[in-house]
């Protein structure tokens, strides 16, 4: 696969942060793709369905994106806006933790 997909989220102004949900920390692999690889219950799959894909197309595309994610072809990016309106962009690891500035 010769493309990159950037997954991003914007945190609210000030002291906002990525929270922990039933499926894991926001922006983590389990949060994006579902716990234990249950792709048909993942946020990626759900957004593809909401975007108009059939269940079969969405499942195949989610699987393709997960493979790309695990092969380092997808970067999870966090954009945070401070109280002055300045934007800081960071790269996240598969656990949803900040690991570096981006780009």
Written description of the protein model:
28% of the residues lie in helices and 28% in strands. It is α+β, with helices and mostly antiparallel strands and 103 residues long. The chain has one domain (5-101). The strands form 2 sheets. The protein has a 4-stranded mixed β-sheet. Strands 2-3 form a two-stranded antiparallel sheet. Helix 2 (43-50) crosses helix 3. The longest helix has 16 residues, at 55-70. It is elongated and about 45 Å long. The model has no long low-confidence stretch (mean pLDDT 86).
Structure in a nutshell:
This protein is α+β, with helices and mostly antiparallel strands and 103 residues long. The chain has three helices and six strands; from the N terminus they run βββαααβββ.
The outline comes out as: elongated
> First CA to last CA: what distance?
21 Å
- The ordered string of helix (H) and strand (E) elements is EEEHHHEEE
Helicity range of the residues?
A: 25-40%
Sheet-strand content, in percent, reads 25-35%
Poorly predicted runs are none
List the helices and strands and how they pair.
Blueprint: E1 5-11, E2 20-21, E3 24-25, H1 29-33, H2 43-50, H3 55-70, E4 74-81, E5 87-92, E6 98-101
Parallel strand pairs: 1-4
Antiparallel strand pairs: 2-3, 4-5, 5-6
